[in-house]
Each structure stands twice: as C-alpha cells, then as structure tokens.
Amino acid sequence: MSYQAKFRVWRGDDGDGELVDYTVEVNEGEVVLDIIHRLQATQAPDLAVRWNCKAGKCGSCSAEINGMPRLMCMTRMSTFTEDETITVTPVRTFPVIRDLVTDVSFNYEKARQIPSFDPGDTKPGEFRMMQQDVQRSQEFRKCIECFLCNNVCHVIRDHEENKPQFAGPRFLMRIAELEMHPADESDRRQIAQDDHGLGFCNITKCCTEVCPEHIKITDNALIPMKERVAGKRYDPLVWLGSKLGIV
Ligand code: SF4
Ligand code: F3S
Ligand code: FES
After folding, report:
1. For the chain, which domains are there?
2. Mean pLDDT estimate for the chain
3. pLDDT at 235 over 60
4. How far apart are CA 202 and CA 222, in angstroms?
5. How do residues 109-123 score in pLDDT, each as one tens digit?
6. Whose CA is nearest to atom 6 of ligand 2?
7. Distance from Cα 151 to the centre of ligand 3, integer Å
8. Is the CB of residue 71 below 6 angstroms from any atom belonging to ligand 3?
9. How far does residue 173's CA lie from ligand 3's centre (Å)?
C-alpha cells in the first residue's frame, strides 16, 4: 500500500538554511533513506545526502529524524504513522556542508591522535588471548563509525568549546579497547583522562542508546576505563609505585 508522507527536510549550507516541506510517496517496506532518494529523484535533485551501503554497515547516512540521531537506511517508515510529519535534519554536532551532509573530520582528527596498538617486543603468535578478551575487542570492533554517539553526547553537542579536549565516546571506547588488550603495553589511562577528556563523561549513556550496533559503550568501555583511571590515581599501592617509578 502506498501513501503520501509529509517530510520536512533541512536545506542549506554552513551559513544559512531552513526546513522545507515536501510530500513524498511511500511504499510498503521502505526506509527513510528510500524516501530521501525519491525526493531527490522527483522534486529536489540538488538535495545533498551522504550514503553508501543502505544496509546499516557503512555509517554514512547518519541524520536526526524527528530529533533522534539515527541511520536513515535503518529507520523503517512503518515506525511512523501515515499522518505524521517526518523531520530530517543533519547531525547537529558537526558543521553542515550542505543539506544533510556534515563535515565529520573532527572524528578523523581524534582517531589520528590515539597512539596505535603497542605490543612491545611481543611478536605475532607469541601471546594467547583469553576468550573474554577476544569478545571484548569484538564488541568494540562492531563499530561502523557512524558517529551518532559522538553526535549525541552533550559534552560536545552543546559545547563547541569542549571539542579540543574531548574525543567523544567512539574514541574513548577505542582507547579502552587498547587499554584492556592483554598484549598492549602502553598505559592508556593518562591519555584517556588528560588528552581525550574521559573526565567530561558523566555517564549519561545517551551514546549507548543511539548506537545502531548496540555496543554497550558506557558499561563496557567508559566505566571500566574510569575505574582504571581511578585505580591509578587513588590506589595507595599504585600511587606509591608511581612515586618509586615502578608502575
Ligand atoms: Fe556509531 Fe556505535 Fe560506533 Fe558510536 S560506537 S560510531 S554509535 S557504531
Ligand atoms: Fe557522553 Fe556517553 Fe558519557 S553520551 S557523557 S560519553 S556516557
Ligand atoms: Fe550505510 Fe546507512 S547507507 S549505514
């Protein structure tokens, strides 16, 4: 069954823009990205939208749909009523290039700042990992880099001035993955706390709520990382060891 849906889409660039109303055909089984594509094909050929896989795997089609950060290709039209107006806006935390396309280079800059895996003198094949360590990494590596978690986190969503000091949940999770890797020899606690702003996170869990891969970012990465940082700072043995230069 087809019907005509009311869409309100943000059109504009970094300097200026507005929400524009459209009425677009919807067919059974379609997702929001299908409707945006139909809009491009029939009424707004210059509408800018970033997408690639249409399967929830490339992380390109992030947007805000009725104010919720979501992947457009994974948001079924059947989640809305037929008379509802569906508002699609670009993710808010990153600067708009045009229409629904934002400049997410903040994230790539943060990624580059994280020191890579450091196995020390250990050669490949020289260490064994426990299954639970493997599973932890596997969970974090489900990340498709849609940056919806970084987009929703209030630390940078509402505070542009925090961006230099805060890497966001996606990259704090990456630091946690390396810190908890049994073969990584770098101490990542100071990097997380001092260089990438772990202390800004007050565990609101909004990042976990929007993650399309259902990664438990807060419970499995951020909180354990905070515990490790606290252990380093407040454990008297760790403190003594650091004073003696052996921890
Ligand atoms: Fe997206 Fe989840 Fe990865 Fe964040 S952790 S970038 S929400 S897939
Ligand atoms: Fe932000 Fe997630 Fe912490 S939304 S405040 S990084 S729990
Ligand atoms: Fe690839 Fe949506 S188009 S995640």
Report:
1. 2-102 (3.10.20.30), 104-244 (1.10.1060.10)
2. 94
3. no
4. 10
5. 999 999 999 999 998
6. 169
7. 16
8. yes
9. 21
